[in-house]
Amino acid sequence: MAKSEFELTWQDIEIGAAVTEPGSAAAYKTGDWKSQRPTYDFSRCLKCGICYVFCPEGCVRQNQKGHFEANPYYCKGCGICAYECPTRVIVMREEEEK
Amino acid sequence: MGKRVGVEVSIALADAVKLADADVIAAYPITPQTHIVEHLAELVAEGELDAEYIPVESEHSALSACLGSAAAGARTFTATAGQGLELMHEVLYVASGMRLPIIMAVANRALSSPLSVWGDHSDAMAVRDTGWIQIFTENGQEVVDQIICAFRIAEDPNVLLPVMVHLDGFNLSHVIEPIEMPTEEEVCDFLPVRRNPLTLHPSKPVAMGDFAPPVVYTEAKWAQEQAMMAVKPTILDIWDDFAKKFGREYKPVECYKCDGAKNLLFTMGSFSETAMTAVDKLRDAGVDIGLIRLRLWRPFPFEEFRAAVKNAETLLVLDRCISSGGPGGPVASELKAALYNEEKKPKVVSFVGGLGGRDITVAGFEKIILDGLELAAKGQEREYEIVGVRE
Ligand code: SF4
Ligand code: SF4
Question: Which domains are present in chain B?
Fold first, then answer.
């Protein structure tokens, strides 16, 4: 998509509003919606991947050190990972808190 | 030249779908549409029509299956009536929003409750805002002709919208009429092989019916509305071409004995045939009356309608549907809206009748016309008059 969604006119819309560019949903940062975000104390992390399995957004990835971490652009802040983590690595905090 | 046959209109309709060489038919049988899909199922089972017939468990699934098949580029047909059309309701919007050229025959039927399997236009009126092209037919020949035209209209690259062809349940679907069935060659010549500008295909992936946040939904709907409002010239061209090839002419608004008439009766569907006889009789008796029949209901042919009534003083409108708690029959309300900003406009008298299969005879139409003229002269007490109700 050359234009951003804010610039699209009705003439730019494909027939049937079809999306012809694969993978374009990645441009839609659904994490904008969240009011809480997961924060981590990896010193207690078992690298068990439970948070990865339970995340309904599929936004948790393993980082280089083998810890599991959410991509903030797609995490919706539901808190499921924090609830499921067996060693309380994850604490949900309000977006504005440090 | 086609062959003239005496045949039930539902069967002729199914044969027209066969002539159009549909690829996929998904339908759920419901009275009074049943004979249409039964005959199609037979044609497929006997190998006379090389199509996929999908027996589904509900109308919601029928139209959903049609969505998939049309999205894959197959020529797709379904048929329904009354409650079945209502069960399809949400999928109707999906089909038009995705611009899928699905053809649907609707054997018009009243809506429960009380349960009625007989004809009126409540089902058609309930779906008038779903973005489908809607064509009303008057007799068996028109049903066959409009089904064939509907495939060409829907699939035209300038249109790409689903089309409903309405035929009155029982009054039209179950009668045996002399019908000229076009030949396979004629239909083949009239109806080109479908070319799909946008279909599901692994080598060119597209996603259809996607999510639109508030920032683009208005643009998407306006694009769809622009497409809908732009289809009329294409429909007129296709009907012209049909007239050249088959000798039968169709117009969005058709006038009968309107020349010089100050008073006009307005009808849609099979009642128009009866109304014509009533107009003949009253004309002979010296009553000033003409008849307008509407063939194209969506998109509404504003220009043609305004031109047809511009010299009229009175417009008597018969609706086969109650707009509950509203300002009159749904068609009458729309006609009033279409005329509201005109400088010179006829007085509109709204009648509601023929509900749930109730007949209106020639004498009934004569009474509507005479009562209507009287009401127009002395003024109506209520928003609409109900026809033939026992008080
Ligand atoms: S808060 Fe919810 S969405 Fe975000 S990473 Fe945890 S489970 Fe996934
Ligand atoms: S669930 Fe907790 S312990 Fe397991 S990988 Fe995720 S953060 Fe580490």
Answer: 3-246 (3.40.50.970), 254-386 (3.40.50.920)
- pLDDT for B295: 98
Query: Considering the domain boundaries, does residue A61 fall inside one?
Result: yes
Boundaries of domain holding A64 = 37-94
Domain count, chain A: 1
Chosen for mutation from A8, A11, A14, A33 (greatest number of chain B CBs closer than 10 Å) is A14
Average pLDDT over residues B328-341: 97
Comparing alpha-carbon positions, the chain A residue that sits nearest to B157 is A15
Return the residue whose CA atom lies nearest to atom 4 of ligand 1. A75
DSSP tag of B26 = E
Over the stretch B220-261, which tens digit does the pLDDT of each residue have?
Answer: 999 999 999 999 999 999 999 999 999 999 999 999 999 999
**Is the Cβ pair A13, B208 closer than 8 Å?**
no
At B196, the pLDDT band (50, 70, 90 cuts) reads confident
CA–CA distance, B25 with B143 (Å, rounded to integer) = 18
One-letter amino acid identity for B265?
L
- Looking at chain A, which residue has its C-alpha nearest residue B204? A20
Q: List the CATH number of the domain containing A72.
A: 3.30.70.20
Distance CA A53, CA A58 (A): 8
B222 vs A: CB within 8 A: yes
Average pLDDT over residues B110-127: 97
How far is Cα of residue B13 from the mean position of the Cα atoms in its chain?
Answer: 14
Is there an atom of ligand 1 within 6 Å of A89 CB?
no
State mean pLDDT over A14-40. 89
- Residue B271: which residues within 8 A CB-CB, separation 6 or more? B168, B171, B318, B320, B354, B360, B365
Contact partners, residue B257, CB within 8 Å, separation at least 6: B279, B280, B283, B289, B290, B291
Distance CA B117, CA B95 (A): 26
- Rounded to a whole number of angstroms, the distance from the CA of A5 to the nearest CA of chain B is 7
- Return the pLDDT at A22: 82
Rounded to the nearest angstrom, the minimum Cα separation between B159 and chain A is 10
B48-75 tens-digit pLDDT: 999 999 999 999 999 999 999 999 999 9
pLDDT of B97 > 60? The answer is yes
Nearest residue (CA) to ligand 2, atom 8: A45
A80 Cβ inside 6 Å of ligand 1: yes
From A10, A12, A15, residue closest to B99, measured CB to CB: A15
Inter-chain CB proximity B98 and A13 less than 8 Å: no
Mean pLDDT of the B312-323 span = 97
